[in-house]
Amino acid sequence: MWIYQKKLQYPVRVSKCDPRVARYLVEQYGGADGELSAALRYLNQRYSIPDKVIGLLTDIGTEEFAHLEMIATMIYKLTKDATPRQLEEAGLGPNYVIHDNGLFYNNSSGVPWTAAYIQAKGDPLADLYEDIAAEEKARATYQWIIDMTDDVDLQDSLKFLREREIVHAMRFKEAVEMIKADRDTKKVF
Amino acid sequence: MNATKQTRDWYPFVGPFDPCPPKYVKTYVVPPNQFIPFQPMNLPQFPLADALRLGTLWPALFSPYESKCRPGEAQKG
Asked: Where does Ca(2+) bind (chain A) (predicted)?
């Protein structure tokens, strides 16, 4: 079970009316390397991985949902007061026609999220290396989104999220070392 | 802060008939997690307020990134 705190992991402030960026942020919402994919991937892998890394997958998978909320908040702020015309100019015309101002799990090109984005190979090393790759891809995606906006407040929140990807990749790399299980033997000199 | 540079440069081929002005140098990021197989105990820590803002408690894991979009450069939405 989970305990929910009704606040964001990190403050989200958007100081420029720029719905164009909302479209790009959707990539981290329902894209292949987005936060939804990350959360579901990690939480799902817990049932076929050695006990000692289950907690890590729980912690990081949970944090990904906190990131998902931050992304949703950014998209919400950028689109909530936009007119249909503004949304259309931002490339979000099709989204408006289908969802009004509603968020949907698709990528920045409008392709709906699919479970095919995530894998559960059942092999601990294969799964963990996928997780490391996913974190680095998400880090890169954050870089390219940061490059697309000159809103320094939005950049600030995105830089926080980018750094978290780096820390997560670090932790998954450590999980690989634990799975390899040569750390304990090394200590017995 | 991590003392080592976190970007790498490479120099792509520039052809005589390239249609667009060439980029002579391309850069990619190599974050510090690539050089730590397993984080040692008792590394130095940021003050908590800084750690929250930066996204990590550990200077050894901190990776700065600056937008390539200059102020006022982004399109109007």
From this structure: 59
pLDDT in tens, A52-105: 999 999 999 999 999 999 999 999 999 999 999 999 999 999 999 999 999 999
In one-letter notation, the amino acid at residue A15 is S
Structure-token match 């991937």, residue found: A41
Distance of alpha carbon B15 from alpha carbon A174, whole angstroms: 43
**Interface with B, mutate which of A9, A24, A152, A159 (most B CBs under 10 A):** A159
Q: ipTM score of the complex? A: 0.85
Q: Are A172 and A132 in contact (CB under 8 A)?
A: yes
Asked if A99 is an active-site residue, the reply is no
Our answer to whether residue A135 is catalytic in this structure is: yes
The nearest CA of chain A is from the CA of B13 a distance in Å of 23
CB atoms within 10 A of CB B27: 10
Q: For A94-97, which contacts have Cβ atoms below 8 Å and span 24 or more sequence positions?
A: A95/A23
A19-187 has which CATH code? 1.20.1260.10
Q: In whole angstroms, what is the distance from residue A66 CA to residue A48 CA? A: 24
> Where along chain A do its domains lie?
19-187
Q: What residues in B contact A18, CB-CB < 8 Å?
A: 74, 76-77
For residue B67, CA distances in Å to A87, A143, B31 come to 24, 8, 16
The sign of the dihedral angle between the CA atoms of A16, B53, B50, A164 is: negative
